[in-house]
Specification:
Largest sheet: 2 strands, antiparallel
Shape: elongated
Number of strands: 2
Length: 156
């Protein structure tokens, strides 16, 4: 095997989407979801995207959109808002919406992990149940001439 034909295989953690990567980075840095340090997370997020580009992997647009969201939140946190009179406006934390999405995503991950722990039988694999024998009555069924009137009187 020559050196030119040898390939380097690097295994990276795969992420199902941008929220999975973001949640991974937050957990790795042991941050509170409600108090995300946007500067640190954005830098790590962009580093991950650059690493994907260098490895010639297909980059999903959702990851780049999430990076843009992080940068937008960072700029909103850095720049104060002023009204027409020049007074500073206090707005709610721009991280709040992202934190809510992350909490919701985290709930779905936990539920998915619980479902994955269930046994396969009855979840992914279904067996054919035995057929029970139905006893047929020996007497003839009763036949009604005016079935509609019988049904109306039964409902009454």
């Amino acid at each position: 095997m020559s050196l030119a034909s040898a390939q380097l295989l690097v295994q990276l953690p795969s992420f199902e989407g941008p929220l999975a990567l973001l949640l991974y980075l937050i957990r790795k840095e042991e941050m509170d979801i409600m108090d995300i340090k946007i500067h640190e997370i954005t830098k790590q997020y962009l580093d991950y995207i650059k690493m994907l580009r260098e490895m010639d992997l297909e980059i999903a647009g959702e990851f780049i959109a999430m990076a843009a969201t992080l940068i937008q939140i960072k700029s909103q946190m850095l720049l104060p808002n002023y009204d027409e009179q020049g007074e500073e406006i206090t707005t709610e934390d721009p991280r709040k919406g992202l934190a809510q999405k992350l909490l919701e995503y985290q709930k779905f991950q936990l539920v998915a992990a619980e479902l994955a722990q269930r046994p396969w039988l009855g979840r992914d694999i279904f067996i054919r149940k035995s057929i029970e024998q139905i006893e047929v009555p020996e007497s003839e069924p009763e036949i009604y001439e005016n079935i509609i009137f019988e049904l109306i009187s039964a409902f009454g």
